[in-house]
């Protein structure tokens, strides 16, 4: 009974330590922008270059209109659109996500955890 309880405690401790260590330190990925395509800004209304009150009102409304930014991801393309009441601009980014550490690194960490758990269990049962 004592051996089973020690084994369970060691397994739970090693498992929890692995989760905490993995979440806090090892779960880092890099997102790299591979390619960027930017489109021209499109004006919704044509602004005439003249000094009139109507033109001033139109420019002022464009100035105070809030800018909304929408982002969408499809596969490895990150599409961003920024627009207000008068103009709209969009850009596409081709992104690449890579894991800093490879699967071999995680396998090594798992092997070290299993080895540490085995050693602790052996020492406690001795």
End-to-end distance: 15 Å
Number of extended strands:
5
Strand share of the residues?
A: 25-35%
Described by the principal axes of the CA atoms, the overall outline is: rod-shaped
Structural class: alpha+beta
Helix content: 40-55%
Q: What is the count of distinct domains? A: 1
User: pLDDT below 50 for ≥5 consecutive residues: which ranges?
Assistant: none
Report the C-alpha radius of gyration, rounded. Answer: 29 Å
How many helical stretches? 3
User: Could you describe the largest sheet, including whether it forms a barrel?
Assistant: 5 strands, antiparallel
Query: Helix-strand pattern, N to C?
Result: HEEHEEEH
Mean pLDDT: 78
Give a description of the structure.
48% of the residues lie in helices and 31% in strands. The longest helix is centred in the N-terminal third of the chain and has 25 residues, at 2-26. It is of the alpha+beta class. The mean pLDDT is 78. Strands 1, 2, 3, 4 and 5 form a 5-stranded antiparallel sheet that branches. The protein has one domain (2-125). The protein is rod-shaped, with a radius of gyration of 29 Å. Helix 1 runs antiparallel to helix 3 (103-125).
In short:
This protein has 126 residues and is α+β, with helices and mostly antiparallel strands. 48% of the residues lie in helices and 31% in strands.
